[in-house]
Design goal:
Elements lengths: L1 H7 L2 E5 L3 H12 L3 E6 L13 E3 L3 H10 L4 H8 E7 L9 E6 L1 H14 L3 E5 L2 E7 L2 E7 L4 E3 L2 E4 L8 E4 L2 E4 L9 H9 L4 E8 L2 E3 L9 E3 L26 E5 L2 H9 L22 H7 L7 E6 L6 E5 L7 H8 L10 E3 L2 E8 L16 E3 L9 H19 L13 H12 L23 H12 L4 H21 L16 H12 L1 H14 L23 H10 L4 H5 L6 H24 L1
Parallel strand pairs: 1-2, 1-10, 2-6, 10-21
Antiparallel strand pairs: 3-5, 4-5, 7-8, 8-9, 11-12, 11-20, 13-20, 14-18, 14-19, 15-16, 16-17, 17-18
Helix pairs in contact: 2-10, 3-10, 3-12, 4-5, 7-9, 12-13, 13-14
């Protein structure tokens, strides 16, 4: 027993090495834990299996926050970028977002190199079958080959591999992505531990040979100048050398495309009844688009190169589960793609996810100490959502085994906090995707101030070094100085000595001035909601809501399902009535008074 405890000591096991797993492993190691990563194949670590991009609307904010917390994704994207744009540039700074195309092969090599070389991280190639639990506490993981890896904390980041099934037409293949087996035993085991599983679905389009595309007449989409970056220029010196820039191109489906798809809907795995999982509403397959938006005669398609040394092009906008021959036929009706040669057909992937309402804001199970979850297993979609969750879960696992205070990010501190609060409070019945509209404090949560918002939390947790924290503080002071010089002249005012400041800091200062009035108003709202004079009180996770008088059975059921940790979180549960909340606040106040009395008599 002592030998097992010695092996477990301060060890965090990360199951999976996708975007969530990588950030989890590195975060746990940065806060001082020993980390053991278990993944099916080491040669596919860090893949971007769907679209070859990082960032986008709201997603760019998440990448900036990952970077502010010391994570890898933004740096990897900057190092491997071959195309970059700032989206929403015509709108206010709060909703502008960086999006870059990455060279898929180079991104994977970057991630694999980081995993091999990161201090405190070791790896094992294999599939996890079970999480060993004793007395409601994690002890490690058991692999399908019977071997056991002990650890004090386990972070599960299985992506689409949890009982994954690939669908192309009527063909079904077990797997989390093409060519890799699913984690079926682990799915069954988690259900046995009491986790509620739901079936979700995502998909990917065919890949097209670049040499078979006729680009004449298609709209070219060059990169922005200057080329956007996720990492602040003074955080990496010297900055990584820029890879050659490539153009994306835009084309459109046409009525012939839609008619052909409608004629073959019965062959689609989505429309034949073969798939039961819910797909992402805001990133539908081309079959869904044709059916749901029947009045539209065309849909945009972005032709995105997948790398400098490959002929593979990703046709963003036409993910599908139709048979391969049907895919080729409808793709050839699209302008520029009449002679298209498919390198690989598209497919839908159906997989298991847990109900994230069984987790707390650390992304730790409420019932099993030391068991954390991050990424698509929590019901999200997208690399960026996965990476942000992985970082929080990994950091908290590492902090827990070190007996340190946890890392929690509030809704007013980051999009990461918004996402996690949404997941653990409301859950999701379809793949969750981040949008700026989900953040009630989005004027505060800009992409350009992620470092200022989160660096103090990151430094306190040990996620970033003191030298980097001091750079952020100096950066903030310079921005405040520039903003002061702009003064009442506003964001567009002339800055006489602008040449003495880096242009990117001047741009940040102008954004700060632009929103100054709104920011103060939101700051007052944040102070009010945080409990300065309000009724935001803690709630015990083990509260028996069915025994509270005054609560309806329905309200008690909702509260018992989520098990909120505060009255503020309870208020965000869908369907909670004012009467139920008043009852809950009265209970929380009574519990608080009892605790004070016990403390004073103790």
């Amino acid at each position: 027993m002592r030998h097992l405890q010695a092996l477990m000591q301060r060890r965090v096991i990360v199951v999976g090495a996708g975007h969530a797993g990588l950030e989890a492993a590195f975060a746990a190691a940065r806060v001082g834990a020993r980390v053991h990563v278990v993944t099916g194949r080491l040669d596919t670590v860090g893949q971007t299996p769907c679209n070859p991009s990082v960032g986008g609307i709201a997603k760019g904010h998440l990448v900036a926050e990952i970077d502010a917390l010391g994570g890898m994704m933004g740096r990897a994207a900057d190092a491997c970028a071959i195309h970059g744009r700032v989206l929403n540039r015509s709108k206010g700074p709060a909703v502008r977002a960086t999006r870059v195309q990455v060279d898929k092969a180079r991104y994977g090599v970057y991630a694999q190199t980081m995993l091999r070389q990161h201090p405190g991280v070791e790896t094992t190639e294999g599939l996890v079958a079970r999480v060993r639990v004793a007395g409601h506490r994690v002890q490690g993981v058991e692999l399908v080959d019977g071997s056991f890896i002990p650890g004090e904390a386990v972070v599960v980041t299985t992506g689409t591999f949890l009982a994954g099934v690939l669908h192309t037409g009527r063909t079904q293949t077990p797997g989390g992505r093409a060519g890799e087996p699913p984690a079926t035993e682990l799915s069954q085991h988690l259900a046995g531990l009491g986790f509620t599983l739901q079936r979700l679905k995502t998909g990917t389009p065919a890949r097209i040979d670049r040499c078979s595309i006729n680009y004449d007449g298609l709209e070219a989409q060059p990169s922005d100048d200057p080329f956007p970056r996720f990492t602040a220029p003074d955080d990496i010196e010297p900055p990584p050398p820029r890879l050659p820039d490539v153009h994306c191109h835009i084309t459109w489906t046409c009525p012939q495309t839609h008619e052909f798809i409608r004629e073959n809907l019965d062959k689609s795995a989505m429309y034949s009844g073969q798939i039961n999982g819910r797909g992402p509403r805001y990133c539908p397959s081309i079959e869904d688009k044709v059916v749901r938006f029947a009045g539209r005669d065309r849909h945009q398609v972005f032709l995105e190169p997948e790398g400098l040394d490959t002929r593979s092009v990703y046709p963003n906008g036409i993910s599908t589960s139709l048979p391969a021959d049907v895919q080729e036929a409808f793709i050839r009706t699209i302008p520029g793609l009449a002679q298209a040669q498919l390198l690989r057909p598209g497919y839908a992937v159906e997989y298991d996810a847990i109900d994230a309402r069984s987790l707390d804001h650390r992304l730790c199970s409420k019932d099993i100490a030391g068991l954390y979850f991050a990424g698509q297993i929590n019901g999200t979609s997208g690399y960026e959502e996965a990476g942000a969750q992985g970082l929080v879960a990994g950091a908290n696992a590492g902090l827990a085994v070190a007996r340190k205070e946890p890392l929690t990010i509030a809704r007013d501190q980051g999009y990461t906090g918004v996402m996690i609060d949404d997941l653990v409070t409301q859950g999701c019945d379809e793949p969750y995707r981040m949008f700026t509209s989900r953040a009630e404090y989005r004027l505060v949560l800009r992409e350009d101030n992620a470092d200022a918002r989160l660096s103090e939390l990151a430094h306190a947790a040990g996620l970033i070094a003191t030298a980097r924290y001091q750079r952020v503080c100096a950066r903030r002071a310079t921005i405040d100085e520039i903003a002061g010089k702009l003064g009442r002249g506003g964001a567009r005012a002339e800055l006489p000595d602008a040449g003495q400041y880096p242009a990117w800091l001047v741009e940040r200062a102008r954004a700060q001035v632009c929103y100054a009035g709104y920011l103060e108003r939101q700051a007052r709202e944040i102070r009010r909601i945080r409990g300065e004079g309000t009724q935001d009180l803690p709630l015990a996770v083990d509260t028996n809501y069915h025994e509270l008088s005054g609560l309806s059975h329905e309200a008690a059921d909702r509260l018992a399902r989520v098990r909120p940790t505060s009255t503020a979180q309870a208020a965000r549960i869908p369907g909670m009535t004012p009467a139920s909340l008043m009852c809950l606040w009265a209970h929380a106040r009574q519990q608080q008074r009892q605790q004070r009395e016990q403390s004073s008599t103790g």
